[in-house]
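Homework-ish question, so no full write-ups if that breaks the rules, but can someone show me the predicted structure for this set?
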Amino acid sequence: MSETSLSLRQRIWNPEARLAYVLLLPTVVFLAAFMFYPIIYVFVMSFFRTNKLSALTKFVGVKNFIGQFQDTEFWWAALRSLIWTAIGVSSKFLLGMLIAVLLNVKYRGRKVARMAFIIPWASSVPISALLWKLVYHPDFGLLNRTLSATGIWPNPPGGVGAPIPAFAASMWVDVWIGIPFFALVFLAGMQAIPPELYESAHMDGAGSWRSYFSITLPGLRELILISTLLSAIWTFNDFNVIYILTGAGPASTTNILITSVYIDAFVERRFDWAAVQSVITFVILSIVSVIYARFYFRQENA
Amino acid sequence: MRWQSRSRWIVVPLTLIILLFLLFPFFVMVSTMLKSGKDVYTVPPLWIPTRLMWSNFIDVWVQADLARYFLASLIVGLGATALNTLLSVPAAYAVARLRFPGRKFAMFLLLMIEMFSPVIVIISLFKVVASFHMLDTFGALIILDALFTVAFNTWMMNGYFKTIPKDIEEAALIDGCNRVQTMTQIMLPIAVPGLVTVMIYAFIFAWNEFLFALTMMSSKNKMPLTIALYNYVGQYNTQWQYLTMAAFLALIPVLVLFYVIEKRLVAGLAGGAVKG
Amino acid sequence: MKKSILFRLGVVILLFAPIVVWSAPKATFFWAGYDGLTEDFRASLESAFNAQSTDAQIQIVPVPWDSLQDKLNTAVAGGAPPDISVVGTRWILDYMSTDSVVEVAPYVSKATLDNINPAAMEAKVKGKLMGLPIAAGARILALNASITKEVPRTIEELERYAIRFNRPPQHYGLFMPGKEHTELTDFCYYFYGAGGNYFETLPDGSYGKCTVNSPAGVRALTFMAKLALKDKVVEDNFTTYDRIHGHPLFYAGKIGYVMIGAWVDSAMKQAGATFPVIYADIPSFAGQKQAGLIITDSVAFFKQGQNLQAAGKFVDFFYQKQWKGKFDQLIGFPPVTLDAAKDPFWNTPLYKALNHAALTARPWPLVDGFDTLNHETWVACEKVFQGQATPQEALDAAAAAVDKARGM
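A: Not a homework solution, just the prediction itself:
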């Protein structure tokens, strides 16, 4: 049944579409009531000067954007955001996938293992970040103590005082928190793959690696696309972990776009700059989403 | 499956090693929550406290009146999960199975919501909630927590629904079921692992949400656990032993929920809905 | 499956019911979670006032200290601020610039105002009292007497003693936070000790350009870098430590000298520290006037509050000796009220030292855009500590950023 043979009016009023609109209505209503104004206001603020209460004062057109693009600190923050997101998402993906594969194998006590792997995700992000701050503490933290006492790393870095350790340390915490999510999504997805596929592959002589790559991965394709895209969006905007661990320091060397947004909005009280950075973030993430969509919808139409 | 039982010998030890590595901070948490103030600030730090301060539990539970915070978090968590499920499952079904103009736009719109961090919209959200006279109500947190997870959950359920072959549904439709019935009685039972994931995500998000709770709530009786925990971060001194004890207690409901629901993660097409 | 959906629907409906019920208006007070303050105290204060008052009711909202400024700013920007809130006095200028706060005098009784120690009235701006002092504390130098008993009279002497008593990794001579935290310390101690001023004062009395890059500022930052990087008398990896993660090193007995405040006594008790402590003024550079730092917090009244009169009545109730005195004893800060100060509780070496330091201490500059000053100066310090810039370069950048933000 080709869609283009019906007019738009006919497509809206056919029973299938009408049901779809009804099913979507509650979500749309809630989103419109609560999120419409805030999101529009972000766009509006980016074209105005704002006062300390985030009210608009003067229309300045694209001057805010030009000002941001002329600020080197902005480009550094954007670059760091991209690095942060790329490394973060790929690490979470790989480790999450590994754990999902391991947890998919049946053995006694698997239930306990499955419960255990969710712990990094089960606490609130600020609390997890604080806990890691204690773990990383050069004097009172057990990480350095254990590393040196067991001889694994006799002289570990003394905490998050320098730019690279600070960035790496916060990145690890972010990955740590995000692994269970990927593991859970993939684990759930693996349940939808019919076991018969594995059995017939095994009878054909395929080993575990081959069946993984030819059965599991393709079966998880949709979920992989969705989860990595959403994780990219969340990781890009992950504010708490960096800010609590490093305060975007030392000397702004771990400043990413989202911490810059916070500092501009709540410390410097320049809501216009924060809005501009949020809009630019939105554009970057939208471009990424559009690229993803091509992959995603390509398979749908096939 | 025979090949599975052989791989157990690699899988179990490997899983153990990874979990040990991953759960290191959790062990630190358990170690710290039974320490006295002196043990917390000892150099070099100890894994086993010199004195096991079981009284920390009483201090935290009684003095901070933790039970009340637990109740508030439970209300918000369960409410947000329920609302989120009610919103995202039908939306996902529509997007997965029905053709209508604006389908791709709707999916993109959901994604768009996720791209704005709460940090930039919090003041406007406050104004919106205030205008609905919903400041300091559970409803406000329930709705906001549900809305911020509806995008992922809709996409996730959409992906899950798509893995279910269309012929199962078509068979049901031919048998006389309408669309809604196929959604609830045919698709959902098969999609239980996906549904479980979605509900866990919504619950964990709501249970651990801090910014909205901090901004919107004023009555102590309505403040969730995340605020109670943050009270131990003082202006000049952090009380780590109480913070970790309270954080440990806050973990328990999540783990219990997961334990109860974990069984459903194993359901699948083998659940018997596939007709020969 | 259907039953559970109906059940869930029922739960959701039930949860929305409370929205319709709207409670009677109460005055709201954002209560900062000072270390040492108990939930018991807050709850009993709240119920005691509400019980004895017929026409005014208060809701005391407990807020973690770290999150107070964000929560308050969101509420103010969102148009629904509390009636009163604990604020850092330095925040008041910001609120005044957006006309968000009102004078205190119309709402509290004269008796309450007269009972306040005049020295604590930091929030008097152009003759108007814009915030009622609630806590005030000077900063002092604390010595671990089992490591050192020498009290330095100048900062140069402090350097010499720190070098003498520095024994890494057993213990270090001096503690210095190298990582940004909510306060501009320890830089401020050295800066005031060098006779520095954050801003130039214009003929009409207001603040002009930022002068953190004045010779005094450069001197202070150079000296700090010398202590940390050249003399190496501060804790290892000092750029990892902000104040809240670093001061416990002192409580653990690893530091000889630390610049600290009124909380040192209760913090040490909590950490089970047993070594003897000596308290003294934070010294200045040789030849400079003695000038420590004193910080006050205030209760501010917000213009858009709905029940300011009720809030005022609560403040009168709260500031009576039996409540305010207990409050002060819990948080450990010297009283700002005259009657509570007479309690023998305050007759200890720590409080004698605090009161002595308060005589010569200077407050933060009361200026619009203080948070920017705080942040930019910290960035400058961190740049120097990381070896990325010289003190003059870093402070010049900071001053420029502050001027840009203030439109100077």
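Now go work out the reasoning yourself. Hint: The longest helix of chain A spans residues 72-103.
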